[in-house]
Amino acid sequence: MKVAIVGAGLAGLVSIKSCKEEGLEATCFELTPYIGGLWAARRGDAGVSAVYDHLITNFNKEMMSFSDYPMPAHYPTYLPKKMFHDYVMSYCERFDLEKDIKLQHKVTNIQRSEDYSESGCWDVTVTRLFPVGDETVEETMRFDAVMICVGAYAYPHMPEIPGLQRFKGRVLHSQDYTNSSEFDARERVLVVGNSHSGCDIATDLCHRLSKREKVMDQVSNHMIAQISDSLTEEERTAAHFIAHSTKQVLGVEKPPVYMSSRSGVDILKRNYGKPVGLSVSFATDDLRLCFPSLFQRLLRWQVGSGFDFKKYGLNSPITKPGRSPFAINDDFYDYLTKGMVKAVPEVLEVSDNSVTLSGGEELEVDGLIMATGYDIHLPMVCPEVINVDSLKLYKHIWPVNSQRGTLAVIGLFKAAGSSLMIMELQARCAVQVFKGGFKLPSCDVMESTTKAYRPNAGDHVKVQFISYVRDLAKCVGCLPTFGAYWTQPLKWFRVYFGSAFPYIFRLVGPGSCEESWDRLVTARSRIHASPEEIRIAEARRKKRNDNIFVGLILTATAALYITLWGFSLYFTWKSLKFGWSCIRSLFDSLKTLYASFSK
Fold this sequence. Notes:
- The protein is of the alpha/beta class.
- 38% of the residues lie in helices and 15% in strands.
- The protein is built from 16 helices and 24 strands.
- The protein has helices spanning 10-21, 81-94, 116-119, 196-205, 211-227, 233-250, 282-290, 292-304, 332-337, 419-435, 443-448, 465-476, 489-497, 516-521, 523-528, 531-598; strands spanning 2-6, 25-30, 101-103, 105-112, 122-128, 138-143, 145-148, 155-156, 170-173, 189-192, 257-260, 266-268, 326-328, 341-344, 347-350, 354-357, 362-364, 367-370, 374-375, 393-394, 398-399, 407-409, 414-415, 462-463.
- A five-stranded parallel sheet has the order 3-2-1-7-22, with helices on one face.
- A hairpin with a 3-residue loop joins strand 20 and strand 21.
- The chain is extended.
């Protein structure tokens, strides 16, 4: 079975891997010269999104791992952009995925084959972006199935604010933001939007430098690099300190970075005593379903932290966490309380060099950064197949009019959890449908049970993370159930109440592997630990298991001893009781005999 995959980002790579795992022939077409999608793309490439330079993953490395390829032990708990891309490329190399990827190939059209109703096949038109000799630049190929893996971050959404066109300052979308060096320290910058990108960019801009500071920074770094070989570690540290102090003296007073928002926002730090995400489990999902009010109270207690939102100009989040926007940022609250970031209300109008806020205040700014999300576009698919104006995807994967189920959309969702985990399960689920391992219901049933989503920003296909993951795993056949562990209750306790790491979905069913249980059990210890600490922890775990075995033997021996001792006491008491009765009988006989002699 031949499968066409559009896009070689994270969704594309897990789709290739899933196809190869089940014996399908996959061909992936990638628009850019790079593998890795957002994590590999460069700023400025036309029609391509890329993450900013200083981005750090929001979730810990174990939650962000592939289910059958954990991250190296020496990786930090949260990964910078380059390190995560290196991990993705090592995954690609480990499973030999690169040979199935055709770079600089643009898919321009996907349409049903003439015999689609019988075969379910698709005609895919591909344009090669680097013509070689007299070869044809455009080619149409026939595939048995298609997986669209372009994601939801390719087309930036620009809000329609009155007067925006006449603004004389700089206007850019968060997609085009690279780092704080793009702005001068004197510039007044307003970030519109308060989700992940908005908070990250606002805090990153607090480190912007003036022209004098930039020159001083370059000169000092160059000078230290030239003489670093002749310096000791203490002298090198002192040189950097002197350069930093000089830069502060030459610096200028920075205006705050303004951030505009129209709704409340929950801002989580990556560590609330433990890395964020570790409290997500099958048990907490069932708690949410069975006792929603209690779950919301517990969640509000965890993320609220008593912060006075209104005091610093932020709208308070609505009562139920998860329904208001949320962001993960370690520095935002600190910068807000220090005055380095200032929250302002919604922007109503833009003039030549200022903006008018919802409260009537006018704010002078030199630059606007729109952290306002992305629109959904699938230009390679005709509206008869997928209508993005009223997007309806069954289980957020298949178009509801998909009679054969041979067209799947991977990665078009928004979730408060590990996107990689969801994309991998989506790909595995789609492959099961291609093979016939999971059958889709009729088009009428899919139509009636699927909600339509509009393509504007902020209304992407939203999913409830762990519930959706469990639903996909059930379709794949890799969801651990109590029936599979009824003879091993301790294992089931770990699966149900423990953190929902991706290794859980390699324990049973298609694609299961023996190493998954050890990876699951040791995942928490790998989050903070160094390789040496992990080795020691594993040795201790083995020793602890041995101690438990010895303890069980000693306990059983002691129980047997106590039982035998109890029986011996019982029979001893019986013997004493019989002996006492004999003595009493003898005494009574002697007493009777004495009485007879007395007479």
